[in-house]
Amino acid sequence: MTIRQLRNYIDGRFEDGASTFDKHSPVDGALIAQAHEASREQVDRAVAAAHRALPAWAALPVGQRTDQLLALADGISRRFDDFLQAEIGDTGKPVSWASQIDIPRGAANFRTFAELARTLDMESYMTDTPDGRQALNYAYRKPLGVVGVISPWNLPLLLLTWKVAPALAFGNTVIMKPSEVTPSTATLLAEVAHDTGLPPGVLNLTHGFGPGSAGEFITTHPDIDGITFTGESATGAAIMRAVAPGVKPVSFELGGKNAALVFADADFEAAVDGTARSVFANCGQVCLCTERVYVQRPIYERFVAALAERARALRIGWPDDADTGMGPLVSREHREKVLSYFALAREEGATVVTGGGVPVFGDARDAGAYVQPTIWTGLPESARCIKEEVFGPVCHVAPFDTEEEAIRLANDTRYGLAAAVWTRDLTRGHRVAQAMKVGLAWVNCWFLRDLRTPFGGSGLSGIGREGGRHSLHFYTEPTNVCIKL
Ligand code: NAD
Question: Which residue ranges does the record assign to the Aldehyde dehydrogenase domain (predicted)?
């Protein structure tokens, strides 16, 4: 097998890095790629190139600029299989998931923000003036400038393009740094940008790590105009410190410890299926995944048994097998973290309803990063396993009696990203969803997305919202123009 070389893309050219780092498959541990770590000098040149490209890119008529975004979307669709293999190779996620979610959404992000940029209206007011006349106020929006995009490993292409697309659509130029754990699809995106003739410097790619590497070089760079970041809450805090001296705007989409509330009147099968999906999808590695399930007492025992049945029925397997329901975690390192929570849960007094260990295959996958889908009950609400994000295929299920209690339990967290409410009583569905201290509340569904809606969280889950015109607000700066008439 050839070891793919993943290079940096700076000012329209692919460049080796000062050093390389290895990318191993989470399926069997095999070496699959080498990424070229960008030096500080390379990040400096990427930022300088982005500044040079900015005026012309920002001045392009919006129709021409968004045509280039549509070309990027078409380029992803044309190389669908390359992106699919790269995504699966980096993450081990099942082909059924990557082919329906990650790669189509990568293209859809460019299409959605191209359309939004083309159809934007403008905020304006007619203002009465003291002399009986009027003034016209309008907020003229200009690009923020050179934007640093730092993304995580769980949905690498989807989350990268979720930020690159609006940044470019609204006239910014970009330095992107994908996670060191999943460097492949970003490299393909740079190839697509190159092949579709995106002007040099508009979209730059630098590979590397966080501290002492490309992540830090970008966030501490004096000429970066804003940082948009998806990843862990602790990393968000570090980036906030890094940008503080320059008072740069940040947009943060961080971790979660999301609750699902299942009321006794819910459509039982739909609630079990939806909750199983929300716990185990992508091996539990979606920021929106449910890790705390609260079930109304009359159906509690039955629900736990049915959820455990779904967990046991999940086919854990090779990612490119169409029947695989769950692949490995993203890496052996991440598996160490998840397994440490499996051990901690036992110490904290959990009953392990199902899972709690590592599957044995008797083949090459034993060198991968697989874990069993896992369900706990019986933990006190103060347990660390109830408070801290695990980011694996695991949840704790606890009973509740009243709606008030369910709301209190769900909101008893420092995170504030997502919640799911399952009930046939839609009045209660609205009421409980509105009471959730989260950015996203789903009723009788989960991870159903409209890209125009505000996306993000509060508390430890982030700062700001992106999506639709919320992205416009982050990626542009308004100048209010007031004209006396
Ligand atoms: P991470 O924070 O470890 O890494 C994310 C990115 O930040 C990587 O590119 C990494 O190299 C970079 N980085 C790390 N330290 C840095 C530093 N000091 N300065 C600059 N860059 C730095 O996150 P991860 O482990 O890749 O992703 C998983 C986390 O992301 C989970 O907590 C998950 O909940 C969260 N997440 C949130 C959302 C959301 O929309 N809210 C979406 C997906 C993932």
Answer: 19-480
